[in-house]
Structure formats: structure tokens, C-alpha cells
């Protein structure tokens, strides 16, 4: 995907909103909206937006796990299973 091919002015957005929304859903690629020649916003279809948030959440979890591993906050699988069985 080349983002330069997905740039539209705000006036174009106003005049072609329904068409652009159909394209967003069909292509599932972001659309950059400009105002006075400067990029001001990015529009995504809802599926891409949801996927982006899920990816960000996963990356946060991975970063947390990595930090916990660096701090030695690990437990072996055998110890975790044993503790689970004691609580159960």
C-alpha cells in the first residue's frame, strides 16, 4: 500500500463521503485527509481500526512480559501448575 495514493482533501471528502466510505470498507486501507495542503487526519474502516487496537494491546502485553522477565519475575511452568493444583 502506498499512502501517497490514499490522500484526499477535506473538500473532496465532503463532496464524496459516501463513495470514500465504500472504498474504505472494500479496500481496508487508511485514507489521509488534508486541510490547506497539510495532512490532518487518517480515516480507517472499523475492521482495520479494531485490528489496530488489538495489535497495540498485544504489543503492550508483550512489552510487559519482557519487562517482567528482565526483572526476574518468572515462575517455572511446573511451579505454576503445582500452585494452581494447591489452590484448586
Explained architecture:
The protein has 88 residues and is an alpha+beta fold. It folds into two domains: 1-44, YefM-like fold (3-Layer(aba) Sandwich), CATH 3.40.1620; 46-88, no CATH class. The chain contains four helices and three strands; from the N terminus they run βααββαα. The chain has helices spanning 10-15, 17-27, 46-70, 77-87; strands at residues 7-9, 31-35, 38-43. A three-stranded mixed beta sheet has the order 1-2-3.
Task: Write a concise synopsis of the structure shown.
The chain is an alpha+beta fold and 88 residues long. It has four helices and three strands, in the order E-H-H-E-E-H-H.
Give the count of helical stretches: 4
Average pLDDT, rounded to a whole number, is 92
Give the beta-strand count. Answer: 3
How would you describe the shape?
Answer: elongated
Query: Helix and strand string, N-terminal first?
Result: EHHEEHH
Strand order of the largest sheet: 1-2-3
Broad structural category: alpha+beta
Say what the CATH topology of the largest domain is.
YefM-like fold
Tally of distinct domains? 2
Task: Give unreliable regions as ranges.
Answer: none
Helix content: 55-70%
Largest sheet: 3 strands, mixed
For the record, give the distance between the C-alpha atoms at the N and C termini, rounded to a whole number: 51 Å
Query: What is the gyration radius calculated from CA atoms?
Result: 22 Å
Beta-strand percentage range: 15-25%
Indicate the CATH class of the largest domain.
Alpha Beta
CATH architecture of the largest domain: 3-Layer(aba) Sandwich
Amino acid at each position: 500500500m502506498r499512502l501517497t495514493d490514499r490522500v484526499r482533501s477535506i473538500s473532496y471528502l465532503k463532496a464524496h463521503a459516501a463513495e470514500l466510505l465504500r472504498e474504505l470498507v472494500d479496500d481496508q486501507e487508511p485514507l489521509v485527509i488534508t486541510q490547506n495542503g497539510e495532512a490532518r487526519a487518517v480515516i480507517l474502516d472499523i475492521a482495520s481500526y479494531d485490528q489496530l487496537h488489538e495489535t497495540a494491546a498485544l504489543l503492550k502485553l508483550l512489552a510487559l512480559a519482557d519487562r517482567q522477565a528482565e526483572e526476574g519475575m518468572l515462575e517455572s511452568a511446573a511451579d505454576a501448575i503445582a500452585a494452581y493444583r494447591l489452590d484448586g
